[in-house]
């Protein structure tokens, strides 16, 4: 059960504290801060720690540290999930990332939100669209008195049958809904170009601006791709289980519809990569070459390609030739970066060169790795396609669309 | 700025500002200052006055203020009741709800009468929103005066409200009842309630679903068909977007395995993929507890994740806590098929310079652990260890030597063949303390098997006087003595030198003592000394550092709780609140309103804590001494018809202050029934018993007639080995009690 929430800035000062049951003294926070800032720590502090016989669950986002003081024996996931929700709701209501500055500007609203998100010691309402009923997002500029509060405070869920994630009487003009299917590929590639392991982590995010209570159905060409999937609450799980189509009443605004993981790839990895890297003992140099090529089968173009090689401390004087793109060397972080705005079709491109090791010290035993990033619009690596998107209970004209983006996740080349 | 000036200026602003939007701004400033830690308590009367506003936003902020400073302004609080009551009559459900919620959060004894009245009205309110809040307000009321809620119409009303159409009201009623009835084991879970909640499961928020799943996990289905129904219904929710729901469903599934043992593997198979997906798709903070749960499952079913080893390979970007738990998992799921893959990965982490020292040592230990599990591959492990040692990187050499020593202890004959020829070279390249200690131990234990053994030791003895490490000196003394008995001609001189150096020229008392001790031992009886020094050692097959297996069984029962993260049963870390601790916490609050006195306050607090701790210890000691005296000559005799209710037993089991573990062996194997018979004959009462694989598990208790003490115990019997875990409130009695059980069972 959640007793208290504290939000700290980077210096360990408390920006906000909220207590739902009794009051937790600030001492525990001081002690926690000591723990987390301990010098010479060889281990990072786990997100769940025990301090003064109490449990603290914490996570860091946008330079703020959120921590929950918890008591009793409950699910640890619940606390982390709740913290994530708090951050999400704050971003939606502040219309900006919750940083120290924006949080301080919105303190009263933050308290208001926390008061509704949890009552007693358990989360209640954490859906942005439901919270909008209870907290007038526009209140700050136009004061609402209790007399005219009926205009906004009609509490739709009071009407029987409301959904936990969508209030009634939503009005939009124009009516539109857009989906982005974002697939990230994690892969480890051998120097020969052979793929050692790969998986695709994907999600479908949605921006919905629809009036009323619309029901959507989405049909896929190949639903078996969605085997390892987690759904937003709005999706009717029975329909999915029986007919393998998505049937849902979407929340209002931006939300994540589903996420999935897949090991199978419809196509080859769209970007072919290979390369070599050797430390030369005699010359105290590292020599390397990297080759990239768009797979023939790929019709779409690959954009924003970058190859990042983190090198050992003290490396200097890169001497590099490339066929395309630009190379940068950062002499503070000792990282070499090759950037290509757009990959040419058909022919391979390469970067070749050497880098000097510092004059003293040992020759590194380990070869570096190359971290590769890229993005491809319009491609779906898993082969997922939306064959039908239907919206019922809405007579008006609706703008709708589905966009696919494939990109690199954790994509590394091992020399 | 001193706070008195701040208060003055706020008070002035409040009085001057007439325009609503300006007042709102002032109050916003007050709330901001309050959360900075400035003590604004003196404004209480002004704020109560301001609460009569018609602006909802202001009202919310003012109520927030009132709740924060209510404690310090008890005498003024009565002023605010008028406002609260008026707001409870408001037309707007938002205002009614707000007022009810704020009032019930005050935790004030004087206001309970008002509170109770408004809460009862709130439970009947026409608005769902107000009813929701009223339901949770009953819990707050219960905390202040339980008698106003327990066994009253409120309790009855709450049960009926579970059936309400509004999902929030329904869930909140479950939450409220669970907490109000906590001392009776929570809400009484009937089939009717479970069916009702499961039927409308999809209507609830994720949080509500988690709560329902908590109930289902404690529910015992009445037939196999019902088990299957629950299983099918919840299966879909393993795809939930909320991790807490996924883990809660997993817990229900795991509990259902007891009723459906033949589906065990299928059920685990169902929860496997969702868990793995959670690890790869969610942030580090989320992945951590999920990995802890995977680890726990892996201890029970190592093969479940065996084909997924690569999912638990570590990334350079992983925080250390994730790297550690992933390595732990790899150690559990290793088998003959994935062995090479896993060892190779671990070895590459050891030499990967982008990972920190702690992790590379951790990996070396993991490699050693795997060697102990899969003995047929230990030569590959030794090869890796030797390679690591040659890298000459201090922390790697250190960790590798220690593990090398352990591997030799596990598989002396086979591994010595590989290691012995290398000892001389190793002795020249290692520098660090622990590594040297390990090497010297190996030399003392097995050095005689190679020709140059005594000479390698001699090299160390030559530098004995310059050695600054006490640990090395002590180990060297022992090893030289051992060598002396095995290779006397080559070691005689060296022994003389080292004993002289140790007793005459050392500064460390321990070294001098050990030197003198050996000296006297040898001069008294040299043959006896030999038999002592070279006594036969027991073979061992399992490191004691490895966790006991029964721990994981307990943790499986506590799936989806913090116990799994801490790797400790709940009873070992739960928070026992003492009276004075609570007071101490309240003191925290008073001072916490002023953040400037942080360090001083903390210091005082710590001192106080230490002093309190001391007192308690002393008291306990003297108490137990008294009891010891009075109980010394007593024999245990149990009351024949003593009886505990299951809930009482459980309560006692969880809350007993003392715990005693005692292992013993039986003369012959017995079956479960005979055990129970023996126990009953001796007036022990059997609470529960069962058979887990080949282990018999029995929960039992008894009450001693003369001392009136109650003892509880658990027996885990595998073959002739018995593990006894006894609990009670008095350590002396517990010891007698445990001995008595052992006597009863062995006779």
Q: Mind sketching the topology for me?
A:
The complex is a heterodimer of chains A (415) and B (747).
Chain A: E1 2-8, E2 14-19, H1 27-36, E3 48-51, E4 54-61, E5 64-70, H2 76-94, H3 100-105, H4 107-117, E6 118-119, E7 122-123, H5 128-134, E8 175-189, E9 195-209, E10 215-220, E11 228-231, H6 237-243, E12 246-248, E13 253-262, E14 271-280, E15 285-294, E16 302-310, E17 316-322, E18 326-330, E19 335-342, E20 349-356, E21 369-377, E22 386-392, E23 398-414
Parallel strand pairs in A: 8-23
Antiparallel strand pairs in A: 1-2, 1-5, 3-4, 4-5, 6-7, 8-9, 9-13, 10-12, 10-22, 11-13, 14-15, 15-20, 16-19, 16-21, 17-20, 18-19, 21-23
Helix pairs in contact in A: 2-4
Chain B: H1 3-16, H2 20-36, H3 44-50, H4 56-69, H5 74-88, H6 93-104, H7 112-123, H8 128-144, H9 153-161, H10 167-180, H11 191-199, H12 206-217, H13 224-235, H14 243-257, H15 264-281, H16 284-300, H17 320-333, H18 339-351, H19 357-373, H20 378-390, H21 394-410, H22 412-419, H23 423-429, H24 433-446, H25 453-462, H26 470-486, H27 488-504, H28 509-524, H29 526-533, H30 549-557, H31 562-566, H32 570-573, H33 579-592, H34 598-631, H35 646-655, E1 658-665, H36 672-681, E2 685-692, E3 695-703, E4 710-718, E5 721-728, H37 731-746
Antiparallel strand pairs in B: 1-5, 2-3, 3-4, 4-5
Number of helices of chain B: 37
Main beta sheet of chain B: 5 strands, antiparallel
Q: Bin the strand percentage of chain B.
A: 5-15%
H and E string of chain A: EEHEEEHHHEEHEEEEHEEEEEEEEEEEE
Largest interface: A-B, 98 and 115 residues
Whole-Å distance between the termini of chain B? 79 Å
Distance between the termini of chain A: 49 Å
Summarize the biggest pleated sheet of chain A. Answer: 9 strands, mixed
Oligomer: heterodimer
Q: Give me the Rg of chain B, rounded.
A: 34 Å
Number of helices of chain A: 6
Widest β-sheet, arrangement of strands of chain A = 11-13-9-8-23-21-16-19-18
**Based on CA inertia axes, which overall geometry of chain A fits?**
globular
Give me the count of strands of chain B.
Answer: 5
What does the overall shape of chain B look like?
Answer: globular
Percentage of residues in DSSP E strands of chain A:
35-45%
- Briefly note the structural class of the backbone of chain B: mainly alpha
Relative helix content of chain B: 55-70%
The share of residues in helices of chain A is 10-25%
Pfam families (chain A): Adap_comp_sub, Clat_adaptor_s
Keywords (chain A): Membrane, Protein transport, Transport
Subcellular location (chain A): Endomembrane system
InterPro entries (chain A): Adaptor_comp_med_subunit (IPR050431), AP2_Mu_C_sf (IPR036168), AP_mu_sigma_su (IPR022775), Clathrin_mu (IPR001392), Longin-like_dom_sf (IPR011012), MHD (IPR028565)
């Amino acid at each position: 059960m959640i007793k208290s929430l504290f939000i700290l800035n980077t210096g360990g000062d408390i920006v906000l504290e909220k207590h739902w049951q009794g009051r937790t003294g600030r001492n525990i926070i001081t002690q926690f801060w000591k723990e987390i800032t301990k010098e010479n720590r060889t281990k990072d502090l786990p997100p769940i720690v025990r301090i003064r016989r109490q449990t603290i669950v914490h996570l860091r986002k946008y330079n703020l540290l959120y921590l929950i003081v918890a008591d009793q024996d409950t699910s640890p996931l619940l606390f982390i999930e709740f913290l994530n929700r708090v951050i999400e709701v704050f971003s939606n209501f502040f219309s900006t990332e919750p940083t120290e500055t924006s949080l301080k500007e919105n303190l009263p609203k933050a308290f208001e939100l926390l008061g509704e998100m949890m009552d007693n010691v358990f989360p209640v309402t954490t859906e942005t669209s439901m919270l909008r009923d209870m907290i007038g997002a526009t209140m700050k500029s136009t004061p609402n008195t209790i007399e005219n509060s009926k205009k906004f405070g009609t509490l739709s869920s009071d009407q029987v049958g409301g959904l936990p994630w969508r209030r009634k009487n939503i009005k939009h003009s124009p009516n539109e809904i857009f989906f982005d299917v974002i697939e990230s590929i994690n892969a480890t590639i051998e120097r020969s170009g052979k793929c050692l392991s790969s998986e695709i982590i994907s999600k479908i995010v949605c921006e919905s601006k629809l009036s009323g209570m619309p029901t959507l159905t989405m049909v896929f060409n190949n639903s078996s791709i969605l085997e390892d999937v987690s759904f937003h609450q709005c999706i009717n799980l029975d329909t999915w289980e029986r007919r393998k189509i998505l049937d849902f009443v979407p929340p209002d605004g931006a939300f994540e519809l589903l996420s999935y993981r897949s090991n199978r790839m419809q196509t080859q990895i769209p970007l072919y990569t290979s390369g070599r890297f050797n430390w030369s003992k005699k010359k105290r140099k590292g020599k390397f070459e990297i080759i990239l090529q768009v797979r023939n089968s790929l019709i779409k173009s690959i954009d924003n390609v970058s190859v990042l090689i983190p090198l050992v401390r003290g490396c200097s004087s890169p001497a590099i030739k490339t066929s395309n793109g630009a190379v940068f060397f950062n002499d503070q972080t000792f990282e070499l970066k090759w950037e290509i705005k757009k990959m040419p079709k058909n022919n391979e491109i390469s970067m070749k060169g050497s880098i000097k090791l510092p004059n003293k010290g040992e020759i590194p035993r380990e070869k570096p790795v190359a971290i590769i990033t890229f993005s491809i619009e319009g491609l779906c690596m898993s082969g997922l396609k939306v064959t039908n998107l239907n919206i019922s209970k809405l007579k008006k004209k609706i703008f709708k669309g589905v966009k696919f983006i494939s990109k690199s996740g954790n994509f590394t080349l091992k020399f | 700025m001193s706070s008195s000036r701040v208060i003055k200026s706020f008070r002035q602003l409040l009085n001057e500002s007439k325009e609503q939007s300006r007042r709102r701004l002032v109050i916003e400033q007050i709330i901001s200052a309050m959360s900075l830690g400035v003590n604004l308590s003196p404004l209480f009367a002004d704020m109560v006055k301001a609460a009569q506003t018609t602006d909802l936003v202001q009202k919310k902020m003012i109520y927030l203020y009132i709740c924060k400073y209510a404690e310090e302004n008890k005498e003024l609080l009565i002023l605010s009741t008028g406002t609260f009551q008026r707001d409870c009559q408001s037309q707007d459900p938002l205002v009614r709800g707000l007022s009810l919620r704020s009032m019930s959060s005050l935790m004030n004894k004087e206001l309970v009468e008002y509170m109770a009245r408004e809460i009862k009205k709130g439970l009947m309110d026409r608005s769902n929103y107000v009813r929701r809040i009223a339901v949770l307000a009953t819990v707050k009321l219960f905390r202040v005066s339980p008698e106003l809620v327990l066994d009253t119409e409120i309790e009855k009303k709450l049960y009926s409200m579970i059936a309400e159409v509004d999902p929030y009201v329904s869930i909140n009623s479950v939450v409220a009842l669970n907490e109000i009835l906590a001392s009776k084991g929570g809400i009484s879970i009937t089939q009717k309630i479970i069916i009702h909640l499961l039927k409308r499961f999809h209507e609830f928020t994720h949080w509500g679903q988690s709560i329902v799943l908590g109930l289902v996990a404690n529910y015992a289905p009445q037939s196999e068909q019902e088990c299957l129904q629950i299983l099918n219904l919840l299966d879909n929710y393993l795809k939930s977007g909320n991790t807490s729901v996924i883990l809660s469903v997993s817990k229900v599934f795991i509990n259902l395995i007891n009723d459906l043992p033949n589906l065990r593997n299928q059920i685990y198979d169902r929860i496997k993929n969702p868990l793995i997906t959670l690890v790869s798709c969610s942030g580090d903070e989320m992945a951590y507890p999920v990995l802890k749960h995977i680890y726990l499952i892996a201890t029970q079913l190592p093969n479940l994740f065996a084909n997924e080893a690569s999912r638990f390979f570590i990334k350079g970007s992983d925080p250390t806590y994730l790297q550690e738990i992933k390595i732990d998992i790899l150690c559990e799921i290793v088998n003959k098929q994935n062995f090479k893959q896993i060892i190779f990965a671990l070895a590459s982490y050891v030499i990967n310079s982008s990972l920190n020292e702690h992790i590379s040592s951790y990996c070396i230990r993991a490699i050693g652990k795997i060697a102990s599990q899969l003995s047929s591959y230990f030569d590959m492990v030794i090869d890796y260890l030797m390679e690591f040692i040659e890298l000459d990187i201090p922390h790697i050499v250190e960790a590798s030597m220690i593990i090398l020593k352990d591997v030799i202890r596990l598989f002396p004959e086979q591994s010595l063949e590989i290691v012995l020829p290398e000892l001389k070279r190793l002795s020249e390249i290692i520098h660090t303390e622990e590594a040297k200690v390990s090497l010297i131990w190996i030399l003392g234990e097995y050095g005689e098997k190679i020709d140059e053994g005594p000479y390698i030791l001699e090299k160390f003895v030559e530098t004995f006087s310059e050695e600054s490490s006490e640990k090395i000196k002590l180990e060297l003394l022992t090893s030289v003595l051992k060598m002396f008995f095995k290779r006397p001609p080559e070691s005689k001189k060296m022994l003389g030198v080292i004993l002289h150096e140790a007793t005459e020229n050392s500064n460390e008392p321990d070294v001098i003592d050990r030197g003198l001790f050996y000296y006297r031992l040898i001069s008294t009886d040299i043959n006896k000394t030999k038999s002592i020094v070279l006594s036969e050692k027991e073979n061992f097959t399992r490191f004691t550092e490895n966790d006991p297996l029964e721990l994981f069984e307990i943790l499986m029962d506590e799936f989806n709780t913090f116990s799994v993260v801490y790797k400790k049963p709940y009873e070992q870390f739960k928070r026992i609140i003492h009276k004075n601790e609570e007071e101490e916490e309240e003191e925290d609050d008073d001072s916490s309103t002023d953040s400037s006195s942080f360090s001083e306050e903390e210091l005082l607090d710590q001192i106080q804590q230490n002093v309190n701790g001391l007192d308690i210890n002393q008291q306990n000691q003297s108490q137990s001494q008294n009891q010891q005296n009075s109980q010394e000559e007593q024999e245990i005799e149990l009351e024949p018809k003593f009886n505990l209710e299951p809930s009482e037993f459980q309560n006692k089991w969880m809350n007993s202050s003392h715990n005693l573990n005692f292992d013993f062996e039986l003369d012959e194997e017995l079956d479960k029934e005979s055990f129970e018979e023996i126990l009953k004959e001796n007036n022990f009462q059997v609470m529960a018993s069962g058979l887990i694989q080949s282990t018999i598990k029995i929960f039992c208790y008894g009450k001693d007639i003369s001392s009136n003490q109650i003892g509880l115990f658990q027996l885990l019997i595998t073959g002739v080995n018995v593990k006894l875990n006894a609990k009670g409130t008095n350590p002396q009695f517990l010891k007698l009690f445990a001995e008595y059980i052992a006597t009863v069972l062995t006779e």
